[in-house]
Write a structure and sequence with these properties.
Oligomer: single chain
Largest sheet: 8 strands, mixed
Distance between the termini: 31 Å
Strand content: 5-15%
Length: 217
């Protein structure tokens, strides 16, 4: 079996999670996964309906965005994903959405403050804002890498664009995207009621350590 066959199936299935949690509209957004042991990644094709995104539709590129397997053109965000994989070897999955609440924070150019234990658990502190960058080259990828290099966060709000999340696997990157939208919405609601309390750094550190290393099976 091709080293990409199972991963193409996984990435196709993960795109259904983006629609399930209402993180994308029309053909926007994408999930990619690094192919273990190879300088390759699997990513969604450009401009194809989510209803048509079976394993056969997924494309494989190298880590510079050159098409290696598949008949369709790769996502317009391929260069950004590829840059992340080249510069963050610990990352095995990247997700981009235009989920409404997280994207609203990106439009404001404001980090999401760490005012919820879920933010501390999953993101290890404030969710940072990345620079404005145009689609089509390495600019977005560079902004993601530069921003996350100084943060424990698995998410970055690219200014005037939307969120990108990363993870050790594509599944974990999708989980981060789902949780990001949840906390972005909740903090928005909290701000309508007043000024939410920021969690003390010592508590953030303890929450993050427990969730990352103890929580779960």
């Amino acid at each position: 079996m091709s080293p990409t066959a199972e991963l193409r199936r996984t990435v196709a299935e993960l795109h259904r999670e983006l629609t399930r949690y209402e993180l994308v509209t029309w053909t926007a957004g994408n999930v990619s996964a690094r192919v273990p042991g190879h300088d390759l990644m699997v990513i969604k094709p450009s401009g194809v309906s989510y209803d048509e995104l079976g394993p056969h539709a997924m494309v494989v590129t190298d880590l510079h965005g050159t098409l290696k397997e598949g008949e369709l053109a790769p996502s317009s965000d391929t260069a950004a994903h590829a840059y992340v994989y080249r510069h963050m070897p610990e990352v095995g999955g990247v997700v981009h959405t235009h989920s409404p609440y997280a994207t609203a924070w990106a439009a404001r150019g404001a980090p999401i403050p760490c005012v919820l234990t879920m933010i501390a658990d999953e993101f290890g502190g404030d969710i940072p804002v990345g620079p404005f960058a145009l689609i089509g080259d390495d600019s977005i990828g560079k902004g993601i890498v530069d921003t996350l290099s100084t943060s424990r966060s698995k998410a970055v709000l690219m200014r005037n664009h939307g969120p990108f999340t990363v993870g050790e696997t594509a599944v974990k990157a999708v989980k981060a995207a789902v949780l990001l939208e949840d906390v972005a919405r909740t903090v928005h609601f909290a701000l309508q009621l007043g000024k939410p309390d920021v969690i003390d750094q010592q508590h953030v550190d303890r929450l993050y350590e427990r969730y990352q290393n103890v929580y779960g099976q």
